[in-house]
Please model this.
Amino acid sequence: MKTQKSQREGGRECGNDIPSFQVKEARVACSPYSSIGEVRQLRRMYRPDEGPYVHVTFYLHNMHYKEKDWDADFWVQMVGDKVYKENVHIKVPQDEPTAKVTATFRCSETGTIGLGEWFVRLFQCKENRNVYQDDVAFKIVDLPPHYTQCFEFISFDLYRGEVADDSILHAKSQYCFKSRGLDSITLLYLAKNLLDKEWTPELVLMLFDETGRIVMQHVEEVQLVQMDEKNKCIYFMHVLKGKTRGFFSPGFYTLKIMFLNDVVLSASFEVGNEDRFGLYGKDAVQPHKTIGNAKTVKPDAVMAPMEKLDAMIGLASVKKKLHEFIGLARLNYKRRAAGLPINMLPLHAVFIGNPGTGKTTVAGLIGKIFKDAGLLSKGHVVFEERSTLIGQFYSSESEKTLNALKRAEGGILFIDEAYSLYKAGDPKDPGLNVLETLMTALADKEQRDWMLILAGYPKEMKAMLEANPGFNSRLPESNRYYFDDYSVDELMQIADLYCKKYQYVLSDDARKALYSVVRRAYSVKDDTFGNGRYIENLLTNEVLPALSARGCALSSPTFEDLSTIVRDDIPAVAYGDYDKSLQKLQKMVGLDELKKSIESHLNFVKLLTLRREAGLHTEQPPLHMVFTGNPGTGKTTVADFMGEIYYSLGLLSRGNVIRVERTDMVGAHIGETEKKMKRILKQAQGNVLFIDEAYNLYIGGENTKNDFGMRAIETLLTVLSREEVDMLVILAGYPKEMEEMLSCNPGLRSRFPYVFHFEDYSVDELLQIADIVVQRGGYCFTREAREKLRALVEKECRKKNAHFGNGRFISRLISTRIIPAMSNRIAAMPAGNQKDAKVLQTILPEDIPITDEEAIAIRNNGFDEEEIKEALRELDGMVGLEKVKVAIHNFVEVARYRNKKGHVADDVPMKWSFVGNTGTGKSTVAGIMGRLLHAMHLLEKGQMVELKAEEIYNVPDYKVDEILRSAMERSRQGLLFVDGDAPQFKNPQSHFDSEKLRIKLTSYTAELPGSYALIIAEHETIRQPLVAGLSRRGIVEIDNTLVFEDYSSSELYDILTKMLCEGYSITVSEGAAVVLKKYIDDICNHRDLGYANARTMKIIARTIADVTQLRESRSAEDATRGVVTADDVSSFVWDGSFAPRKVGY
Model:
């Protein structure tokens, strides 16, 4: 929108008539994203669903450029069906020629913007008023989702110079313009309006040069013009003209017309040595997708060789290199014309690729391209191979090769499977004569009107070139064209071309089925895969015969019957049977949760396979995984099964397991790691790469960046980032170490989304493994021997750590101790008994390496029941705490049950939260818990170490670490009780963070040796509402959290009398009881003061004992003793006027 100059200047400073800025232009954009940076597009028309955000950028010319810095406040207002505003402050340094004022508005919560015309206005804020500077308008229009529903192409033309409307009929359309005298080009785009309403389309025109740089942009609202009585059309005429003379320099240009988000047209034209005339036909102007999804428009003419090459499927790197080569050839042509020296371009090349990748076809096109470019005089191709160049007589190979070279003059000599001319280790092979003759011809610099192309498979061609330095130098890397294998989608495009050529049609179901067959073949391909040749053979030799048989079976087949390929004509996808591998997994001992997880994962993988088979679009997520668990839990065995299953599903081409560890992957010198990784990754192609103890690749700490293990991780991630990776990588190791490794690199966790944990085997599961091991070896246990083995396994499980061997432990126990003990026993027998087959098979109790006394003790539970009984008796003797008592009794009962089932040590929880107010018995119960854990052999000592939370409150972090570590070391093989329910922690501003403390202490338990139990006491937990609610409904324990409820007045009285009796041998008279009960009732009625607890009762008990004993010391010897009288407690009366400060405030 144009405004007066006075309005577009702003930011005047006091005493200075020079404004700080001048508004140059404003741009607006609608987007679903809240942030897009500055707005660069020219559009002013949007659909409602392109919101809900509106972004606007005002570009300001800095009037103080190179003079001084300045800043300003702005107010941006957007007005439509609603009004929005935003304040913006900008700072503009003196070295910035342009300043930007950017604002973003959210128009709705529904993701749309209201219809109609909107205005965005810019005001400068100064001296308590807003000064208008500029505005920009945009429209929100209700239009169909695609431009083809709005208008339909009629014609598109380009004309030389500026052409007026009245002379357009006499002008000739061109697709190439002579550069001399060219100052402008006129375009005319006509399209039929399809909407039954009045509207004004907005078109954006963009012109690109051959480097992809935008050289011109233009936006225009195009009025509809009446075509006839019923129809209107879009009549878009625009003159392409630069601001300077010679704007159109020689080269290729691309012109795009956009409507909203759609590319309506993308036309290429050339500025060169001559004018060429041609029309753009209707079919040609429809945007077509190419390799990069770009859209191009081509004239309705016979395609030139370069256009044919560009139209070929795939071959992106070949096309890019050939375009670069032709560009250099054109540069040489221009330099020669200008009298400048040139570098001669070597034509000879190497084509490297697997079968069926288009090498022969491209050779034919290159001949024509090079002819058009003046590099070859004829451009024909002479095809040869070993069999046509090898003669029957000695030295006849040279003669045949020279004849081939003569026939190829002016064109190309193409030698297919050229590597067959070189046989390593055979100096007498006649193929060497051919190579020597070719080498001589390549060395002749006078003969430049010919081109040699050596073609073959990658591995073989590399070996031949490296073995012949002459070829390596005369055919440099710059002249080597790599023909990549076609992707699955590209193979399907080849199938479409095949059907189009021979007039067949694929039904939708047939296309889906064919895609599944091709993808399966692609997933198991090797170096001999036929690529394009494979798809042609599949259609010719399998699909069409099936169609033929079906058509011949019909008495009167229709045209459709003879031309339509249906689902039944496509061969079935050949998948392997992975049920056997799954059954092997299910037969493994234990690992129940793991089996469920893996089966669920495989169901997901099978779903992906079925979706692809059905032709549904399915993105392949990373399927690599992490196995965590201690040694001997079956990780390697399961990896074998995963390889078999993935191979059966077509996700791996081989399915073997390649097992490596750090020493196999990491070198000692720079570059050695990369070489090792390259060799391993090549070996792992099509297989499972199982990296054991993978956490060793990440050492952590300051040396991480310098460690070569990170190089191995980075190399692995680079390979796994590719879309098609014929490899399954499994990282294996201990849980904690693997988690640290995954955290060291964000890319690792995203590439390894599946983590499967292998639990330690229970006692029963280890015995099952023992049965399998001895049965496989031809042995058997007696009943007594197996019972004794159970005792030994239970003993080992109780003292196991992270390095416990699990299944490996039981296998080695049998092979290295039990069987040798059996052999020593049999060796001591008489010779006659040694030949008894039963004797040679039977393992007896004396062969098991554990004493009978130890076995009996372990079979009798192994718990110290007397100590447990005594600890529970003390717990039950405590006043109140009924729910806590039930919870601890339940804990002991479950521990006994799990111990009998063989689930010991690691399965018993060793961390608790005690929640309740001060003085509710938490520290006493914690001491009892330490005794119980000791009696269960979970703690060697069971002592309780108490740490007051006040000690670590408001102290430096390093001091906290020292205090905690010291407390942990003192509580080794015992229980650490952290008392965090001090009164001051009731204050929200001094809250005790038990979760943070628990995490820190848990990390210490992993670092420090020995076993630990941990109890943290606090007023309330982070899950307090849940815990309190369930506790009220009778749940006595929630997630190892025990709730210590406040004592009632009667319970506090019982505690007081118990303290007097047990601590001072004093009883309470009836009169004294009445006074004390009344006093305790009054204390409970004022619980908010924080005195209704056992700690207060302890203070009162000591006070009463002192008063009573003082009275007794002054009384006659025959006076009543050991009884609290009413006079002793007469002062214990609640004073209503007593209002002490609340605890914690």
Q: What stands out?
A: Residues 257 and 527 are 45 Å apart (CA to CA). Confidence is low (pLDDT under 50) at residues 1-8, 12-16, 288-303, 1141-1145. The longest strand covers residues 129-140.
